[in-house]
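> example.struct
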């Protein structure tokens, strides 16, 4: 299952980002390019594992966007991009988060208390980004119905699921060691 994605990951480069192993792949970086067959595989999987009983699909900038757009088109549910810069709009929710290699800010706009959302993203590694997003959303009365990530790295997705009390559904788990990617079904 998911053979095209698995094969493409095992042939992807891994670089060191300040001691943090980082997979370079079309899912995580848009490099070198996204094969339509792989995107179809991903979107089909997302549709199959999520009920999408939600008002909005949320996509963290930038690599959640390639998955939110085809899901929105297929399911006729609007999507919102969680941006990396503020706009100062009324109700804007600032989110401070940490990844395995940096500390940053994101901004959520266009949601209100009681909205039901599904978050889609490329990869969950440490869980820093997703944890901060879910806490900010919940703190504003927004219901997180589901979290979908194409990839899970290490134990980050399972740890995050336990901390948040919501499953982080992912298509594949990736382990990076000795400069190679090992891929398995979660």
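> example.seq
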């Amino acid at each position: 299952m998911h053979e095209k994605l698995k094969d493409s990951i095992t042939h992807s480069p891994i670089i060191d980002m300040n001691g943090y192993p980082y997979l370079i792949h079309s899912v995580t970086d848009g490099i070198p390019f996204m094969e339509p067959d792989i995107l179809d595989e991903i979107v089909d999987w997302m549709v199959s594992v999520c009920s999408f009983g939600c008002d909005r699909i949320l996509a963290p900038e930038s690599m959640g966007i390639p998955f939110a757009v085809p899901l929105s088109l297929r399911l006729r549910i609007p999507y919102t991009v969680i941006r990396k810069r503020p706009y100062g709009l009324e109700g804007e929710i600032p989110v401070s988060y940490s990844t395995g290699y940096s500390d940053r800010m994101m901004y959520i706009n266009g949601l209100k208390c009681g909205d039901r959302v599904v978050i889609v993203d490329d990869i969950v590694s440490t869980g820093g980004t997703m944890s901060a997003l879910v806490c900010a959303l919940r703190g504003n009365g927004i219901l997180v119905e589901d979290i979908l990530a194409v990839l899970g790295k290490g134990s980050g997705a399972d740890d995050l699921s336990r901390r948040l009390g919501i499953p982080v559904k992912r298509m594949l788990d990736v382990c990076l060691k000795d400069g190679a990617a090992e891929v398995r079904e979660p």
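> remarks
The CA atoms of residues 92 and 109 lie 5 Å apart.
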